[in-house]
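Hi all, posting the design record for the shared folder.

TITLE: backbone redesign
STEP: 1 of 1
STRUCTURE INPUT:
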């Protein structure tokens, strides 16, 4: 065939079938075989069909082949650029802090731990029994325990706590049935008729007059607005009515329940107007209290404690999304299906479509029956263990624990630190707890002061928290016990520090004194404060009290060596006598027991004394 004719045919085929990509046509003059040189413009299989007659017909199989659809995990674009948390609106920070409290595995538990530690304890201490009784009763009546739980949770979760109270005529219960579990209102045995009469008169004439707080609540920080000038704290607090209140006011009166009608009737008119028109309701400053986390006077709102780790949380979430995207790629693997080979080529479109239908199933598994010309290959992402490893989260987790100023050891024990580091971290955590307690105590004192002024009290109680929450329990108890033995601390303070109720323990002790004196329980006083002879009256001191030494004006008696004096009937053996008669094994056990309860200096002195008593002639 002449070259000019071949060029014309080639040009015609290019124009008619541009997707086939015909480059040239070659004809073997000897055999007459025609060869088409193709470079398809589409990245797909193409061939020239000349078996159906009617001339040359190019085919592009991509246009006709069936598509295999597989279910996939939805992919999301990763946006690693986030806004600086400090520059955003404080209400948005509050919203994010609340969200992370419920969703982040570190922010939520650390917030709960700090709130629980700070809340531990709470007692009113004052030497006036009547004032203490009044404040204890009042805190019980207004639900102060639940209020403190709310305050501490929002303090560490959001950082800006706004309290609101209701004033009404308050009168404690006049009956002698105590509203405080486990405590008496009055100890009648220790009061004269005159004192009891004064107490009743105080209840009727003093405690019953004046309007006091009878209920407290914590307002939603997303609805509280701080307005006014920040100079010299000239601010006011306003409340944006919640959406549910607006919906309640829009309801038809016939659809309202009795409780809803009573609520609407009790609402201030300004609050109703604000709810209906979408404005703000200015709160009475005498009824509002605020407790903030690390807020300066020139700042309008406090910021959440977790603000420092907002960026870290977002970055960690982005890493999780990257892992999900990788898992998506693993799930949506490429399934390469090859039909035919060089020896058995497949050129039929019907066969291609039939095979595609075999794999186009709603199930993740395939059941396929075919001949030896079918080859299947699954293409997956390489080195999945490196992509989905934990290494990339180590720095993020360290940043979060640093920003929250808390160690994982306190949450789940999942860290490797030595004892010295633990002690240092515990001290830092305790200071954070003490800061929260100082903020809440200031707020409590403001409330107590107003109540004291209304009730004509000359003072109000001092608030006490449990200071032993993060201390070594055994060491703490031993220290208190040693201080009591040396009369450096009262029994009441030590018992209350350990969480015991002093009036209850005093009553138990009074009942047990006859048993102790009879020799059935314990010893009188402390075993480490007995005289050498074991009985304090030898030195003319009151029974059961520490020795005051030799009476004034009496010379010291001559020391007598009598290791094992004869005991009188009913007389108890002294410690010196017990030590002398101990077997070697009992003596060693005795020393070990003393070492566990005494300080190092006291133990050395004690060992010196015991040695002299045991080995003296």
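Okay, here is what came back for every position:
SEQUENCE:
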């Amino acid at each position: 065939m002449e070259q000019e004719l071949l060029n014309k045919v080639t040009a015609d085929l290019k124009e008619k079938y541009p997707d086939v990509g015909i480059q040239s046509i070659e004809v073997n003059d000897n055999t007459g075989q025609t060869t088409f040189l193709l470079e398809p413009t589409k990245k797909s299989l193409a061939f020239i069909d000349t078996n159906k007659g009617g001339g040359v017909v190019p085919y592009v199989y991509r246009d006709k082949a069936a598509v295999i659809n597989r279910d996939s995990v939805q992919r999301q674009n990763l946006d690693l650029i986030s806004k600086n948390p400090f520059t955003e609106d404080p209400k948005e920070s509050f919203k994010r802090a609340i969200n992370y409290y419920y969703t982040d595995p570190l922010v939520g538990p650390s917030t709960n731990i700090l709130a629980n530690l700070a809340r531990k304890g709470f007692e009113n201490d004052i030497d006036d029994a009547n004032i203490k009784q009044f404040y204890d009763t009042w805190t019980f009546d207004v639900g102060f325990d639940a209020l403190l739980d709310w305050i501490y949770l929002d303090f560490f979760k959001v950082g800006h706590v706004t309290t609101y109270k209701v004033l009404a005529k308050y009168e404690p219960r006049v009956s002698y049935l105590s509203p405080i579990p486990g405590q008496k209102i009055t100890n009648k045995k220790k009061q004269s008729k005159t004192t009891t009469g004064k107490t009743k008169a105080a209840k009727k004439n003093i405690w019953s007059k004046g309007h006091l707080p009878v209920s407290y609540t914590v307002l939603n920080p997303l609805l509280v607005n701080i307005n006014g000038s920040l100079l010299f704290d000239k601010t006011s607090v306003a409340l944006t009515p919640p959406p549910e209140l607006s919906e309640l006011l829009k309801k038809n009166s016939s659809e309202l329940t009795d409780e809803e009608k009573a609520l609407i009737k009790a609402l201030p008119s300004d609050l109703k107007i604000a709810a209906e028109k979408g404005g703000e309701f200015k709160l009475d400053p005498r009824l509002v209290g605020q407790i903030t986390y690390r807020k300066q006077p020139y700042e309008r709102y406090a910021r959440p404690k977790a603000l420092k780790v907002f960026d870290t949380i977002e970055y960690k979430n982005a890493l999780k999304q990257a892992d999900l995207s990788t898992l998506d790629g693993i799930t949506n693997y490429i399934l390469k299906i090859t039909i035919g080979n060089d020896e058995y080529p497949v050129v039929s479109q019907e066969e291609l479509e039939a095979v595609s239908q075999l794999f186009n199933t709603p199930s993740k598994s395939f059941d396929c029956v075919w001949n030896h010309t079918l080859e299947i290959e699954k293409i997956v992402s390489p080195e999945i263990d490196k992509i989905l490893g934990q290494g990339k989260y180590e720095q993020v987790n360290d940043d979060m624990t640093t920003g929250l100023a808390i160690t994982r050891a306190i949450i789940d024990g999942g860290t490797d630190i030595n004892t010295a580091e633990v002690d240092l971290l515990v001290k830092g955590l305790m200071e954070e707890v003490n800061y929260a307690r100082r903020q809440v105590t200031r707020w409590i004192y403001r409330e107590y002061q107003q109540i004291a002024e209304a009730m004509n009290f000359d003072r109000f109680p001092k608030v006490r928290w449990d200071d032993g929450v993060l201390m070594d329990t055994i060491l703490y108890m031993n220290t208190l016990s040693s201080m009591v033995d040396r009369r450096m601390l009262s029994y009441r303070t030590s018992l209350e520090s350990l969480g015991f109720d002093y009036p209850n323990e005093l009553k138990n002790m009074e009942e047990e004194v006859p048993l102790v004196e009879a020799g059935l329980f314990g010893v009188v006083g402390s075993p480490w404060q007995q005289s050498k002879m074991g009985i304090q009256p030898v030195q003319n001191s009151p029974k059961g009290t520490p020795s005051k030494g030799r009476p004034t004006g009496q010379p010291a008696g001559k020391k007598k060596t009598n290791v094992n004096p004869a005991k009188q009937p009913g007389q108890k053996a002294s410690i010196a006598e017990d030590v002398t008669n101990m077997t070697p094994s009992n003596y060693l056990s005795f020393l070990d027991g003393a070492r566990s309860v005494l300080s190092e200096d006291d133990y050395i002195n004690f060992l010196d004394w015991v040695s002299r008593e045991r080995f003296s002639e």
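COMMENT: The longest helix spans residues 419-455.
Let me know if anyone wants the other runs.
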